[in-house]
Amino acid sequence: MHFHWGGLDLESSGSEHTIDGIRYVAELHIVHYNSDKYSNFSEASDKADGLAVLAFFYEVRFKVSVNETLQRYKPYTGQFTEIQPMDISTMLPDDLSDFYRYRGSLTTPPCFETITWTIFDTPIMLSSNQIRVLETSVLDWENKTLRNDYRHTQPVNDRVVEASFQPVLFKGSCHLETIHTKLDKIEGILNNFEANLESRQAGSEVSSHPAFHFSEESLASYVKIQTLGSMGLSSFTLCMWLRTRDFQPRILLSYATRDSDNELVISVGLDWGLWIGGHFANVPLHSSPNEWVHLCVTWTSQSGAAEMWNNGLSGRVNYIQKGYVLKPGGTLLLGKDQDGIEGMLSDAFIGDITTVNIWDYILSPWEIRNLMECRYRWKRGNIVGWGKSSATLFGGVKLEEDNSCLG
Ligand SMILES: [Zn+2]
Q1: Which pick of 177, 184, 324, 335 has the fewest CB atoms within 10 Å?
Q2: Which CATH architecture best describes the domain 199-401?
Q3: Which residues surround ligand 1, an ion (CB under 5 A)?
């Protein structure tokens, strides 16, 4: 049993087989020899009916499990270990009914043409963290990290590839819509993958967490955040670092439900703006463009007190929406509001946003100050946790090195 993967220069693909030209993240090979006829692998390896390989693709599941614990082994050249017996079927997809089969070769020298290949159509889902471990744990003969250990696809020649099911083929010569759907899907995967690079490094070097850069050239760009818990909040603390480019009113964050566009919205400009359940409050702002600002907003339904903290200092307390509870089940975006009017992008955010966290309780002034002074860089929200909540980038959001705490 062995694997093929990518990982070189963040290459997010390393399977040896491709389907319709698409290379998967990684591939598992379970190699068998014909023990009815041959006594061992090497005896079978050059016989026409000697070997069979079951191949499985891996795909990234863009949901980082909080409880995921990954054991990391870094075996060096010449080390051996004994692996406890394990049930391989638990590592495989449930659905093994759809597969491709062809007669082919070993993908490593001596490349004997003796393999009956069976490639299963249903991929195995791994988290991006697990893929990361696969891509970075194995060392080569020189004790350097082994990457891109896959053979490039070879010509089909006159081989027949059979399928146990009716594969979805491109009808006619060129079905543009299908191709576009596929391209969109690939773009989504790439964007997700980039966003997840950050979470793959959770717990490691903090300075490697990227910031989201929203440029003037792509006003339609935004980031969708997957929350860790319900947004049906009766109090919260929301903190982030941001850097604006001008004094125009722009949307930093918007949370909208089906029937409430402004369920929770924070804007920046000459003032901070805050909407809760459609009600608005604003607080004068003292900061200048092109400088990192640490913003925290606290609100509690009990008194309706909303407080905005600008670089660790509290502004005026506003009282809005006493007794209100935020509606759950909505969508949380950075960089754009959700009033549904396409093309109305005059309030789209331009600048940088990083370290966005939301807690379902109110942090103390001391904690907020520590966050601002970067002593609490590791502290993560339980509703949105920077590096824990998955983020999907749309419309050209760029990832940049986060230097909010260096200035
Ligand atoms: Zn292989």
Answers
A1: 177
A2: Sandwich (2.60)
A3: 29
